[in-house]
Specification:
alpha/beta; two-stranded antiparallel sheet; 14 strands; 31% helix
Length: 357
């Protein structure tokens, strides 16, 4: 039986415990040029007792931004600003990975530099609205990425990963979940291509695999994690066919496993059978953000480490309210209660990862 508070080796890096701070986008990059701030350094260093911190979503390129005031890792000033954050975390003994998140179609021209518009595998607009500095606006029809643009986008991820290491991060997590660009390539309703980047499962998993391969080549597989959310309907994703979902993600996970990545981070849907199947397929550290609706992920989730369902458990809202969460979990409380009035979204549960603090 595994102990949540025992050290764990992740791709050669010793971690103090098996408790992960989940990635939670905050829209607090108020520095010039979408740069990290001293407030962000304080926020992450306060939570450095996590075995692993995964940051808020960080855009790998200007066109990858989909929310106001989210940070980037595509410019020198962004690298320099993030160094203050990573230094603060490391001074407290923490380990921190940067989550690289390209939002794809989930953006708006008002959030992007002049002349840019949202991109996606296919010109299919998402239903709903996006938050902008001018208020909520309808999603627009994205520009379909051609083959050359896909190649450039993959290179953007690799360059951002190199920038993350230059900024002092211990590694990166590729956001292939929650309806963002990598997920848009995986899902049949957002990827309607008929070329080698779409169609059957082999085509739909290709983009995510090539991004992971390029990043692993750039910084090492031991510094690269990958996040998935099979069947997650968030952000107008439709993965409704259970057989296709199973085929897509078992194929993706098996192929990712050949890259010797640091970990797989799964945001779980209602089907724990698929969780068990992917856990068995994956060859290294398996991080789970468990499905706990209608409740948020709580202390009981640690039993999933004890019974071997996962190697590590990711907590979202509980980490926001309790910066010293590992110590409180070990002591079995007490816990501060997350205040839903202070953020939009929540604790992942297969549906959202956008707390507004």
């Amino acid at each position: 039986m595994m102990d949540a508070f025992a050290p764990i080796d992740v791709a050669g890096r010793p971690l103090a415990n098996r408790i992960v701070m989940a990635p939670m986008t905050r829209s607090r990059a108020y520095g010039p040029g979408a740069t990290a701030t001293d407030l962000m350094a304080t926020y992450y260093s306060q939570r450095a007792s996590a075995g692993l911190i995964v940051t808020e979503g960080i855009q790998p390129s200007p066109v990858g931004q989909g929310y106001p005031d989210t940070p980037g890792l595509h410019a020198p000033e962004q690298v320099a600003a993030w160094r203050r954050v990573t230094d603060a975390v490391h001074c407290e003994g923490g380990v921190i990975f940067a989550q690289l998140m390209h939002t794809g179609r989930l953006s708006h021209p008002s959030l992007l530099p002049a002349g840019l518009s949202p991109v996606a595998p296919s010109p299919v607009a998402a239903k709903g609205q996006v938050f902008t500095h001018q208020g909520p606006m309808d999603f627009v029809t994205p520009r379909e990425l051609d083959t050359d643009a896909i190649t450039r986008t993959i290179a953007d991820f690799a360059d951002a990963a190199r920038n993350a290491i230059a900024a002092g991060f211990d590694g990166v997590e590729l956001h292939g979940a929650n309806g963002y660009l990598i997920h848009q390539f995986l899902a049949p309703n957002t990827n309607q291509r008929t070329d080698d980047w779409g169609g059957d499962v082999t085509g739909r998993v290709r983009f995510g695999l090539e991004v992971a391969a390029a990043v692993a080549e750039a910084i090492g597989g031991h510094r690269t994690g990958f996040r998935i959310s099979p069947g997650n309907p968030y952000n107008d994703i439709a993965e409704k066919d259970a057989a296709d979902v199973e085929n897509t993600y078992t194929t993706l996970v098996a192929k990712l496993g050949e890259l010797n990545l640091a970990y797989l981070h799964m945001l779980e849907g209602v089907d724990r059978t698929l969780t068990a199947r992917l856990r068995k397929t994956w060859p290294s550290t398996f991080i789970l953000n468990p499905f706990t609706l209608p409740e948020r992920t709580g202390p009981d989730a640690l039993t999933l480490i004890q019974d071997g369902t996962a190697d590590m458990i990711a907590f979202g809202a509980l980490f926001l309210a309790n910066p010293d969460l590992p110590a409180r979990l070990a002591a079995q409380g007490p816990y501060n209660t997350p205040d839903p009035a202070t953020f939009y979204g929540g604790d992942h549960h297969g549906y959202t990862d956008y707390p507004h603090l």
